[in-house]
Amino acid sequence: MYKFTRRQTVFAAAAGISGLSGYWLQSDDGVNDDTFRVGSPWTPDVIDPVTNGWLWRRLTVLEPLLTVDYDATVSPGLATDWHMVSDRTWEFTLREGVTFHDGTDVTAETVLPSLTRAFESSSMAAVPVESVEATADRTITIQTAVPFSPLPAHCTRGITCPVSPSAIDSDGSVNEPVGTGPFQFENWEPGSTITATANPDYHGSTAHIETLIYEGITDDQTRRLKLESGELDMARILPNKAADTLASSPDLTAYTYKIPRARYLVFDLDSAPFADRAVRRAVMYAIDRDHIVDSLLNGLGSKAVGPFPSDVTEWAAELEPYEYSPEKARSLLAEAGWETNGDSRIRDGEELSVSIWTYNTRPLLPTIAEVLQTQLQAVGFDVDISVMESSTIKQQATNGEFDTVLWSSSVLWYPDPDRLSDLVHSETATMFSGYENEAVDRHLETARRTADRDERFEQYAAVQRHIQRDLPLGWLTYYANVIGTRADVEGYRPHPVESCYHLEEVTQQR
Amino acid sequence: MTGAELCKRLLTMAIVLLGVSLLTYGLIFVTPGDPARTILTQQMGGQAPSQDAVDQFRADNGLDDPFIVQYARWMGNAVQGDLGQSYYSDRSVSDMIVQRLPNTIALAVASMVVALVIALPAGIASASNPGSRTDYAAQIGSLMGVSMPNFWLGYLLIIVCALRLNLFPVAGAAGPKYLVLPSLTLGSGMAAVIARLVRTAMLDVLDDAYIQAARSKGLRERIIVYKHALRNALVPVVTIIGLQLSYVLNGAVVIEVVFQRPGLGTLLVDAIFARDYPVVQGVTLLIGVIFVLVNFAVDLMYSRLDPRIDLGGEYT
């Protein structure tokens, strides 16, 4: 009797489970055939463009006044024309016939509230904008406190993207990104997904994709597995080592392309041993960057000479590279008074021991630090590695002594070489080498005031040569991005500055 | 429980929660990493903010005030039910928690169900026939369950069940089917611990004199095991299930990241990395409240399962 009951129970349970799983497997996630899913590491937690404009811009829900072209230069966006009226005044002429997603016309009046919010926000505190005005129906006039050539480049940033005045609440907050882009906001799950649909009234060519779902997936393995299982049509920022396996699968396509982002060492110029330029030069000669690119980066990316990769942007100056030469490194150290003592070196009884600080949110940095450790030990450095959080490094390096930090950052996140001011200007730099060079400051300030492109290039080239000689920063490698899509995705063109995914150009055959 | 006891109990809970909040606030405060810099960096898509921006942010959010002023301001609002606004997103912390909580509760409940469904039969079978093949199999199984790291098992299940067999989705939280793999991952680890405990507790109870007496009366073994022994063996098991709730919350952090579930775990981790103090504090306080309440519930359950235990915890 009992056995019979148990069998019955097992049978019923099995039937129940299979029935339920059948239901689950068929249950609708709101995904249709014309839905395109893209996954990247950043989870959407905020609607407001002042905080999260870069994400809305990447999805082309919002569009800025000016955009960035595929050659990393400033190009027309919502404004078709922009020019300097006087050395502190800029005029932007808005495109005609553009409407926000809610039907409101894009005019100087309707764009003004968004621009004012953006330039008043703390993220834009370093941009010396004094006033923003609507001076004609389609003319926006921006006054800066000092002559400031990089202004157009800052107008490509997501934070400046206009939203319809109806989207700005009375308390000044934005609760829906009502922009002008080829996709319009539909829905979001904070911390998880954004849904957008094609905007049929777009002023350019309309999107081929009907529905776009963006998923924030922090773990890169999960992103890749979701792409493989068909839950994503595009997975962004995958590990370099994924490129080969993606390329070998008939269902998937791998895109690898260079971006203006560099890995570099920041030296502390205020304390021993790196206060001595010869020691910094010795480090640069001791590093075999080809080996790092081949063995750790899977051959993607390339060794860096200066801040800007010349195959991505035209702002790279001709610089004398530090070629791998352990002998030269050893002789520089010996000349600087660091005598060999067994495996290490000493000077005035002190050992040549240094620490490299780095962080792991950019996955390869700690591994690269280990390679640096081995290569530097070969010429007599005693190297110790600390992996900390990037904000901790920043705080400790800004406020105290350190030896060197292995850091990585975009060198053109707004497409203007004034970015060098963030790295090496003695007063405004956000990097922490403590570099002070009057000539460099003068070049940077002159370049900011100069309108002529060629003259600016000369100024920035001079800055790059100073950095190359003085080595407050030592350039190691440039980045390549790895993006995977399903094989049936067509029309995707990777953008070097990644400010836009341009998914409106993508088609998918199913 | 008398009224006085209840008051005493509530007071202790309040003190514990106050201690938890002071400790976490203090620990985050002394952890290096400046919230202004970290949050602005995030807002600027990963770029370093200028010093002007940092100063403005600090002033806007009262971050220049001394520790005790910041803590007192936060606590003052918290006791009035206002957990503040996230520094990063400007959204209300309570809203963020309310929106994420269901995902974590669903994961916790499903994992606990998975754990019990595996652990109780395995533990009982193992204790009923000590030294048998079933016993060894169950013990080896639970040793594996205890030793396997969560994230590893998670990826394994994804590769086998989602990629090879195509039975379940890899990750997300769009429906019930998204719950299966995460709860199996988290539940199997707990099952291992609970099964071992059920086995030990059952073996203890099965040795007791009253069980011998029941056997000598000729009662059927199944009735002895399920009707007489199990109830008493459940007392320590209930405790461990309560304690396992902490495991669920810890485990949820890893599992939620691997399976990309927007829950409390991911909220907390993101907030810690962002130095988003109000969110870290809000979530920690909530987890503290859950712990205190679970402990209280476990105590109440004791006296239900074994009337000899009173709430003072002494045998009468």
From TrEMBL, chain A:
Name assigned to this protein: Peptide ABC transporter substrate-binding protein
Cellular localization per UniProt: Cell envelope
GO biological process: peptide transport
Stretches assigned to the Solute-binding protein family domain: 74-426
GO molecular function: peptide transmembrane transporter activity
GO cellular component: ATP-binding cassette (ABC) transporter complex; periplasmic space
SUPFAM superfamilies assigned: Periplasmic binding protein-like II (SSF53850)
Pfam families on file: SBP_bac_5
Superkingdom in the source lineage: Archaea
Keyword field: Signal, Transport
Organism of provenance: Haloarcula rubripromontorii
Lineage: Archaea, Methanobacteriati, Methanobacteriota, Stenosarchaea group, Halobacteria
Family to which the UniProt record says this protein belongs: Belongs to the bacterial solute-binding protein 5 family.
Main location: other
TrEMBL record, chain B:
Cellular component terms per the entry's GO annotation: plasma membrane
Membrane topology: Multi-pass membrane protein
Residues covered by the ABC transmembrane type-1 domain: 101-302
Localization of this protein: Cell membrane
GO molecular function, one term: nickel cation transmembrane transporter activity
InterPro entries linked to this entry: BPD_transp_1_N, MetI-like, MetI-like_sf, Opp2B
Signal sequence region: none
Residue ranges crossing the lipid bilayer per the database entry: 12-30, 105-127, 148-167, 233-259, 279-298
Xref: PROSITE patterns: ABC_TM1
Superkingdom of the organism of origin: Archaea
Keywords annotated in UniProt: Cell membrane, Ion transport, Membrane, Nickel, Transmembrane, Transmembrane helix, Transport
Stated family: Belongs to the binding-protein-dependent transport system permease family. OppBC subfamily.
Protein name in the entry: Glutathione ABC transporter permease
Species of provenance: Haloarcula rubripromontorii
Higher taxonomy: Archaea, Methanobacteriati, Methanobacteriota, Stenosarchaea group, Halobacteria
